[in-house]
Amino acid sequence: MITAFILRALDRRTSIVLAVILGIGILLPVLNLATDPSSPFHVPTYVLTLLGKYLTYALLALSVDLVWGFCGILSLGHGAFFALGGYGMGMYLMRQIGDRGTYGNPILPDFMVFLNWKELPWFWYGFDHFWFAALIVLLAPGLLAFVFGWFAFRSRVTGVYLSIITQAMTYALLLAFFRNDMGFGGNNGLTDFKDILGFDIQADATRGALFFASAAALALGFWICRAVIASKFGKVLVAVRDAESRTRFIGYRVEGYKLVVWTLSAMMAGVAGALYVPQIGIINPGEFAPANSIEAVIWVAVGGRGTLIGPIVGALLVNFGKTWFTSGMLAEYWLFVLGGLFVLVTLFLPKGVVGSLMTKGSRKPVEKPIEDVVAPGVAAGQAAE
Amino acid sequence: MVDMISRFKTLLATLALVFLAAVPAAHADDLKPLVDGLGKSGYAALKDAVGALAATGDPAVAPILQSLSAGDLYVRKSDRAVFAATKAEGGYKLTDPATGADAGTAASGEIDKIKVNNAVREAVTAARGSLTLMSPDIAKRRAAAAEMFRNGDPAQIPLLDQALAKETDAGIAATLQLARAAAILKSDQPDADKIAAIAVLQAKGGRDVLGQLTAIEASSTDGAVKAAAANALSSIRGTLKLWDGAQNILYGVSLGSVLLLAAIGLAITFGVMGVINMAHGEMVMLGAYTTFVVQELIRNNVPWLFDWSLAIALPLAFLVAGLVGVLIERMVIRFLYGRPLETLLATWGVSLILQQAVRTWFGPNNREVGNPSWMSGAFELGNLTITYNRMWIVVFSLVVFAALMLVLKRTAFGLQTRAVTQNRPMASSMGIRTPWVDALTFGLGSGIAGIAGVALSQIDNVSPNLGQGYIIDSFMVVVFGGVGNLWGTLVGAFTLGIANKFLEPYAGAVLGKILVLVFIILFIQKRPRGLFALKGRAVEA
Amino acid sequence: MTVTNEPTRVAHAKARDSLLYLDGVSVSFDGFKALRGLSLVIEPGEMRAIIGPNGAGKTTMMDVITGKTKPDSGDVYFAGDTDLTRMDEASIASLGIGRKFQKPTVFESHTVWDNIDLALAGVRKPFATLFHRTTKAEIARVEEILETIRLIDKRDWLAANLSHGQKQWLEIGMLLAQEPRLLLVDEPAAGMTDAETAETAILLKEIAKTKSVVVVEHDMTFVRDLGVKVTVLHEGSVLSEGSLDVVSADPKVIEVYLGR
After folding, report:
1. Are A52 and A43 in contact (CB under 8 A)?
2. Min CA distance, A228 vs chain C (Å)?
3. Are residues A370 and C110, on separate chains, in Cβ contact within 8 Å?
4. Which residues of B touch A169 (CB under 8 A)?
5. Subunit contact A373:C109, Cβ cutoff 8 A
6. N or C: which end of chain B has fewer CB within 10 A?
7. Which residues of C touch A (CB under 8 A)?
């Protein structure tokens, strides 16, 4: 059933997107490893790592778009799911350090030795196995989203109220993870990683593999989203976004739909975070900052919400811009640009880059399949009515 | 704190000078052998010598002891005479410790410093306490009595009795009684006396008694005394718990007033207009920076006006933040009415721009905003300590709240605002210029945030990030209290403030905050429209 | 649906035979009484028109029946013994109560086809819809409904691009697709041309042959076209009931409509 479900989504357009993402995922590491540094085709490792980071951001943006663009739930707390996934991976990487830490303790990570802890807290058990960490990367964000969503959607918290409490959620986690006695490294977070699955995390080949893994995860995420959106389930989501109470009166239990898509989206964000951490080399409570979550929302808005290509394009565009800006003389002015982006996109480009191009490109928008057309005046807020 | 200590030192030095001038020379001669006694070797001998000096009851002894504990006394090797010495060219300049008279100089090899250890220092402190007990100066006697109470030295009992007999001031006499009780508890007097002493301490109550009683309870071997002490302890602890509760409520009210100030502008823009303004915190920040600029100008030009700086900053902060608010409304928000999620994103962008603008202009670091004299210091109410700045902020928040209520309920502008927010087309057809009302209402909400910034600059760091710390809390207050209801905001702010402070002792500051957030999240599940929600078709439509 | 009711609560014999049974229903919002002791009985297969001035409680009554608003007191039973006051909108819709809003609400960014397809009786659970494959029978049923509401040649249009009247019909089509036993229709003729209004009346009468219908309407011509029993609401309770001619002659109704 599931294979049928996922294969059904594999139309021409989706196949092309998947091929492009996977092609880049293979090509760049090959160019990095197989060419000489002097070759014009050589891709330096730092570029690979940077682009790998962008790909995980794109996956995060995709997960935000799935709930915002298609179901009208504006999450200002997806950074929390991303960070939880990141911590799951970070804990695995910490355990892989073994006795190579500064204090040489074979079991306890450095920060625990520093805090004078004598034994590993129970919630660190199992993280020496990769499969366990991978499971937690999916389950921790998923479970948080499920519990949070179960409460929120059941009592029909919608619109800005929901947005604000998602922000409060990630803020509460930010405060919690800053505490040393939480057992996640406090302020400094988890860092100084050595190995992943036995491979040196700094090695070019490992970097290439991580890049490919990020591309593959993005492709898989895109595919799953495509399958979800193409199904009747996806049509119900859009119905909820456009007219929530109408959907109820037709007999759909809206909270169930929201809960499923919300949890799925959180798990995608968790995977993105898990792939982000080994490439960046650190995870700290700063990832829970509300500002991070809102930044992910603006990637989606820039690219075009309610389309699946949009968030990917938006995440890449904005982050290229950020890297270019903050590495130059204008670094100080980046926040002006980012702030301006928020204002200008909401005022003048409500459909985002991709959404606007699609509307312009197709003369008969009425015949387009739903996911490519942004409804006139798509206002996620309308779903709240 | 440091300031107090240095002030205290100056006081001591002045006192010392007064004494030096008053002491007749002949008198000093009688002291001479005793002073030279300080030169004997060995800490025990030194301690005895201190006791002997103190026993004279001569006020002139006080400065000598002061010099001793300051490490200024030296003994001349040749004749074992004791002098106060200060470093001078080629050696030391000697003075008579009692009279301050010049006694020539000495090379550094000729004299030895008189070293003191803790036991000697304690003896000196006790001795000075006993000396000043007889002082004609009430303030000094009071300080000395308090000092004696803290030390509770059994050896001082006779002295205390003596002082008690002579004491005329009731307050000091009471303290002396306490000191006596404390001393008795440490002595080997009969149990009956000790139990009586415990009763005296229990009657006093308070935190400073706790330590002494705890020590007795722990060390006492006698059942009756131990029981009495335990009894007194539990009674005092009970009272203290009540005071702690009161103190927590006070802290909570203080935090609540800060939350109220931060949220009250939001209650207008979000609560009344339904506009979700993520740049609200930045309006607070602008108000705080306005205060900074005003204070800078006053410091540099008219320093005597400093105590008025906040009063001057208030209207300016209102104008600055209000004007920025009107600009934001005209340039951004008015295009987004009815699209709350877009408004949220756009105003977040505005907040980033404002933060960066302030950072570029004033720099990323904290700026110094001073407290005017009437905002500094504290006073005590029973066992409670209340700082003036906290108190004024509570008062101020209530005044702002009342003023806002008045504006909304009693003025034409308020009427128009309510008309527009309830039924825009109808208000518009009645000739109300709705765009202006929107802009001004938003300006009012922003301006009040600016005023809040003036107050918050007194207790928080003024930095470009100031506003971010308040935005989530403010939203929580408004949502918790019930959107569209100013009274809800008032109750919400103080409830959350007090809840926060009551949780802190058990859960710690950070965990307490998290618990409050979780509580609100759960609360919104139960009552999505807040504490004082409007009910009905209109709201749900 | 697994709603069980203790028999004592359905003491009224009348409730058992009726399709919809409201007794003594009261709702108040912050002191304002929207409904005060409203009682109403709809028989199976009956079509009923409900009229009343603004604020009479018509929409609140619909809200109570469809589970959007919970009554403060009173009984609401469907098909004899199903207590509607304990159910949410989705379960009530699944029982077979369809509702058309005053303002036409269709899913604007879906095609006409998808609008009907979503409303089609059948799968409602999230995972069922996730893996659902459209069957031939469903396609046939959607086509049939599109024929009925005369939108078959606009099947691939986005609902947003339909005219006002077409949206009204699309919404009625969605109601039909739900295969309800009872339809609640709020001002179906609002904003329609006279020709459209007449056609709508014919369409509703057609529907009423197989289902019970409750129509809330202001337009007296339309109500006359329907030619059914009329209930007049006023200030949250029933003022008068009977054929249109009977209620128009009722002095109480005349007073309410013409002022005192």
Report:
1. no
2. 7
3. yes
4. 517, 521
5. yes
6. N
7. 66, 68, 88-91, 93-94, 98-99, 101, 105-111, 114, 117-119, 123-127, 129-134, 156-158, 160-161, 174, 178
Cβ contact A220:A272 at 8 Å: no
CA A210 to chain centre: 16
For residue B412, is pLDDT > 70?
Answer: yes
In this prediction, residue B151 carries a pLDDT of 73
Which long-range CB contacts under 8 A does B501-510 form with residues at least 24 apart? B501/B248, B501/B249, B501/B251, B501/B252, B501/B255, B502/B248, B502/B252, B504/B248, B505/B244, B505/B248, B510/A175, B510/A176, B510/A178, B510/A179
Mean pLDDT of B304-330: 92
B535 contacts in chain C (CB < 8 Å): 29-30
The pair of three-digit structure tokens given for residue A274, joined into one six-digit string: 């898990």
Query: Looking at chain B, which residue has its C-alpha nearest residue C64?
Result: B537
> Phi/psi of residue B318, each to 5°?
-60, -45
Chain C interface test: which of B535, B537, B540 (most C C-beta within 10 Å)? B537
Phi, psi angle pair for B384, to nearest 5°:
-95, 140
Q: What's the whole-number mean pLDDT along residues B228-247?
A: 83
pLDDT computed for residue C226 by the predictor: 82
Contact C59 B536 (CB under 8 A): no
User: Do residues B320 and B293 lie in contact, with contact meaning Cβ atoms separated by under 8 Å?
Assistant: no
Per-residue CA distances from B387 to A4, A83, B295, B374, B391 (Å): 70, 41, 22, 10, 6
Q: Is the Cβ pair A297, B520 closer than 8 Å? A: no
CA quadruple B248, B249, B250, B254: dihedral sign: positive
Question: Who's near B301: CB < 8 A, 6+ residues apart?
Answer: none
Distance CA B524, CA B476 (A): 10
Q: Give C89-132 pLDDT, tens digit per residue.
A: 888 988 889 888 877 789 999 999 999 999 988 888 998 888 88
Mutate to test the interface with C, among A226, A249, A254, A366 (most CBs of C within 10 A): A249
- E-assigned strands of chain A? 190-191, 195-196, 199-200, 282-283
Size of interface A-C (CB pairs under 8 A): 109
- Rounded Cα gap, residues B177 and B197, in angstroms: 9
Max Cα distance, chain A (Å)? 69
What global pTM score does this model have? 0.78
Buried (b) or exposed (e) across C238-256, using 16+ Cβ within 10 A?
bbbbeebeebbebeebeeb
Output helix, strand, coil percentages for chain C, rounded to the nearest 5: 40, 25, 35
Contact B179, B212 (CB under 8 A): no
pLDDT band at B307 (very low <50, low <70, confident <90, very high): confident
For residue A356, give Cα distances in angstroms to A365, B421, C153, C161: 12, 33, 28, 18
The residue of chain C nearest to residue A236, with distances taken between CA atoms, is: C118
* Percent of chain A residues past pLDDT 70, beyond the cut: 93
Residues in A touching C133 (Cβ below 8 Å): 4
Residue B464 neighbours by CB distance under 10 Å: 24
Best of C109, C142, C155 to disrupt the A interface (most A CBs within 10 Å) is C109
Q: Which amino acid is at B333?
A: I
> In angstroms, rounded to a whole number, what is the distance separating the alpha carbons of residues B187 and B161?
15
Token code pair at residue B91: 């050696």
Question: What are C170-205's pLDDT values in tens digits?
Answer: 988 998 898 888 989 888 877 778 888 888 888 888
C-alpha to C-alpha distance for B348 and B282, rounded to whole angstroms: 10
**Cβ A375–C158 below 8 Å, yes or no?**
yes
Helix (H, G, I), strand (E, B) or coil at B106: strand
Quick: pLDDT tens for B148-201.
777 777 777 777 777 777 777 888 888 888 888 888 877 777 777 777 778 887
| Chains near B (3 or more Cβ pairs under 8 Å) | A, C
